[in-house]
Amino acid sequence: MATDFFWSYTDEPHASRRRQILSQYPQIRELFGPDPFAFLKIAMVVLLQLWTATYLHDASWLKILMVAYFFGSFLNHNLFLAIHELSHNLAFSTPVYNRWLGIFANLPIGVPMSVTFQKYHLEHHRFQGVDGVDMDVPSLAEGHLVTNILTKSIWVVLQLFFYAFRPLFLKPKPPGIWELVNLLVQLALDAAMVYFWGWRSFAYMILSTFVGGGMHPMAGHFISEHYVFKPDQETYSYYGPLNLMTWHVGYHNEHHDFPRIPGYKLHKVREIAPEYYDSLKSYRSWSQVIYMYIMDCTVGPFSRMKRKLSTVTTNKSD
Predict the structure, then answer these.
(1) Between 95-106 and 73-87, two packed helices, what is the crossing angle to 10 degrees?
(2) Could you tell me if 82 and 43 are in contact, meaning their C-beta atoms sit under 8 angstroms apart?
(3) What would the pLDDT profile of 203-236 be if each residue is shown by its tens digit?
(4) Cellular component per GO (predicted)?
(5) Tens digits of residue pLDDT in 57-72
(6) Alpha-carbon span 11 to 61, nearest angstrom
């Protein structure tokens, strides 16, 4: 297994590819803009998950765990990826409306994260793989400790915790007023859930978030997106059926090339410019990606591309 990251001495590939594609296919700009059905889709999932939590208020712990893994996990992960979509302002043209909708989508997740996520995620796009800036890349400690099948399995189960806490330890940002709003709204919902329906309903929400971000098919996208399985490629797309439940985040090369295009239109980018994507390695199964990550002795947290800040191009419009 590698003892260091893959290092690139050029800028990330998406900005240059975006310019090439737009020069050849300017009609792609017509795909830019918000998803008009985003609010409706988010509202339906939020209400369904909150109703499910109240329904399980007196269920057995085994039933709560089973429903959380086989049902609630899909809903909460869907909302996590809705928040990802909203971080790019792809529900409304007015950014503040997206932020409020993100706080709303955050409710069944149980832990406030939508506002903080946006801060770090936009840096991941602009400074992909940049040492000390892109907090999507695992830490040195993860790379040195997660080195075999057992530790990789534990890492996968707990990867949501690594994903959430890594930036808070390695690159903490001072919280602002919107983080406070996110926190207070979330605490109000959590307190109401416990007060009116009990701890089991609240536990169902938390369990849905936890198991949905661990050893779970939908969580495979955390690994598939940027973990290097092919040395000369740092971003990978997934073209399987779970895109329908995950805001099409699987179209990840297309998303990084065109972050202003909503998920449900990303397939059109590949249809318009297939010569830019068909030759790239892609996946059809996120579960298979998790299996490959755990079982392949050459792959681990160090299987990420990194670069120095000096290699980054400052002008990345569109």
Answers:
(1) 160
(2) no
(3) 999 999 999 999 999 999 999 999 999 888 999 9
(4) endoplasmic reticulum membrane
(5) 999 999 999 999 999 9
(6) 49
The answer as to whether 311 is a domain residue is no
Residue 39 lies inside a defined structural domain of this protein: yes
Query: Residue 169 CA to chain centroid, in angstroms?
Result: 19
Residue 71: which domain range? 6-306
Is there a domain that residue 313 lies in? no
pLDDT tens-digit profile of 70-98? Answer: 999 999 999 999 999 999 999 999 999 99
Residue 317 lies inside a defined structural domain of this protein: no
The string of DSSP letters for the chain reads: --SS-EE-SS--SHHHHHHHHHHH-GGGGGG-S--TTHHHHHHHHHHHHHHHHHHTTT--HHHHHHHIIIIIHHHHHHHHHHHHHHHTT-S-SSHHHHHHHHHHHHGGG-S--HHHHHHHHHHHHHTTTBTTT-TTSPPHHHHHH--SHHHHHHHHHTHHHHHHHHHHHHS-----HHHHHHHHHHHHHHHHHHHHH-HHHHHHHHHHHHHHTSSSGGGHHHHHTT--SSTT----EE-SGGGGGTTTTT-HHHHHH-TTS-GGGHHHHHHH-GGGTTTS-EES-HHHHHHHHHH-TT-STT-SEEB-GGG--S----
Structural domains in the chain (count): 1
